[in-house]
Design brief:
Blueprint (H helix, E strand, L loop, with lengths): L24 E3 L2 E5 L3 E3 L4 E7 L5 E9 L6 E8 L2 E9 L6 H4 L2 E5 L4 E8 L6 E11 L1
Antiparallel strand pairs: 1-2, 2-10, 3-10, 4-9, 5-8, 5-10, 6-7, 6-9
Length: 137
Amino acid sequence: MPLVGGGGGENVAGSNPAGTGSVINYIGKYAYAYSGAIDVDNSETTLLKFSTGSQGIIATVQFGNVLFNTLDYKFTIQINNEVVNVAIANLANTAPTTTESGLKVIVAPFSEIKITAQNVESSATKGWTASFVGEVI
């Protein structure tokens, strides 16, 4: 089953088994990308940015903070330069649902994905991670 770029085989050229960095990875019927720890301040910061292959994906996007903090953050998911989901995590008062259950997205073939974070409370820099994990359809 072709998964990448409409070719005839599995993704081998752009594969990253560890999964961190701005690339999507495929294993069988699953797709995933992990940002690794990235410092986020009051500027919109890209955590993940990649293009999908010739199959659709039903995915969950989750965020995690590297060190506990009580600041407010905005997380944005864009597909083909269109904002499809924005979540605000108020870490001082409640556990953010964005880090617990994740945000669900359905992604069409040959889509551009961009996932960002921004500290909306101060200019302090804190480390964040993002994961994109889903099933290829």
